[in-house]
Amino acid sequence: MNDAPPHGDTPLRSIDAVEHGLSQAGYIASRQISTAIYMAQHLRKPILVEGPAGVGKTELAKSVATWLKLPLIRMQCYEGLDESKALYEWKYGKQLLYTQILKDKINAVIGDADNLTTALDKLHAFGDVFFSPQFLEPRPLLRSLQEPGGSVLLIDEIDKSDQEFEAFLLEILSDYQVTIPEIGTIGASVPPIVLLTSNSTRDLGDALKRRCLHLHIGFPDDRLEARIIASRVPGIDASLLKQLVSFAQALRGLDLKKVPSVSETIDWARILLLLHASVLEVDLVRDTLNVLLKFEADIEAADRQLAGLTHKARQDAGLT
Question: Does residue 307 share a domain with residue 237?
Fold first, then answer.
């Protein structure tokens, strides 16, 4: 593993600096999140970020890359993802073209070879070229190792991949290097900052978890959610902000199939701003409830309690 200091004059000099830097990139981070990023960089360990969909796991990786001015390399996981899609593959078309060129020039290559052994020896020098870096097509994992100034590697929704793919990741996440049989070992001169996200659709293996710091991002409390929305929806009225946060928090307390995520409350705030709303009225909420809730059964369940929920939201904002 590379033991060089993290990214030279790194801005990750303290947890407070991380929190401030992320806020400049538009990400309002809790102390727990800022601490995880700080530790990950200084310990050279990846972070396994778990939590429900829509709470800002992917956005965290994007914001780290934006703040540190590093390239973001994203690998979306899915069932059946394998080495050729994640690490590298050979440029078969280029190899085929090279083969044709070599075929056309075979006489010039062999030259005055007077026997088969000599001819084969001359051709052998060209054989290795077919499996050299110029014919290699790097995929996200290899690209992240080859970035000379470092990068942010986002392995998104790792829980959607197979267990075999988890095992394949272990060498890369342990030593930030990979072995390509035809070329040798390729290691990162500056290890990437690695974030793996999971929606917990399946249990991940112990070996993968041991190599990672663990970070759980849950739904924020009302104060943090208000800060997040205010940063993403500039110009929103303070009173309306309090109302919609109170309403969203109350919705999450209902027995719903899918409670509204932070990304959905941000979308709802933008809609309310677009509609020039200042107060949460029952009819307004009913007309826009599909922004927050994605299942008809959930909408019907919430609709039966809209009067009480909107009244409480206004009350929490000091309007009644």
Answer: yes
